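Colleagues,

Please find the record for the two-part complex below.
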Amino acid sequence: GAGVSQSPSNKVTEKGKDVELRCDPISGHTALYWYRQSLGQGLEFLIYFQGNSAPDKSGLPSDRFSAERTGGSVSTLTIQRTQQEDSAVYLCASSRPSDTQYFGPGTRLTVL
Amino acid sequence: SQQGEEDPQALSIQEGENATMNCSYKTSINNLQWYRQNSGRGLVHLILIRSNEREKHSGRLRVTLDTSKKSSSLLITASRAADTASYFCATSPLGGYKLSFGAGTTVTVRA
């Protein structure tokens, strides 16, 4: 594909509900990353996938957050029992190993 | 945690003027990258400078890197209204992959 795509672009949910965010990386990129950006802040690393290796989940803020990457391509970030502090823009990036990371447009999550 | 810190936090300039922003970081890096973000959405990659490089150019952008001072600067020459955005530096650690971002510099270019 031309670039990293993410869906939905916006998601409004009620506190306590589960949400799923999707990322389609650039074709051929084996590395995939999720970041979170809270209002007016820099980006915070969440999770990293590289090929068939075990993912680096060290940035996930709580066990309510999980992510998977099926078939080495599409990734889904799931947030269970959402809280208001989960409101942020969730950005996905992909790259060749140790190369420039290209970002998608992000999903703006609002938890009411 | 954020490794990079941008300075200034905000910058307002007249169209046609140059804009300079700085980034400082704490630990040794493999490379440093600059990104632009419009309206709080996706990041656009601008330029990557490796730890063994001192200066790099791309169009109206000029990036310098001083590893002894652990700092980098981004210069945008002949600014345009379309350059209005937030600019972030991001460092890639030695042997690693997690990018560490600063809080960004918000640039406003007045017509």
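Chain A has a mean pLDDT of 92.

Comments are welcome before we finalize the supplementary table.
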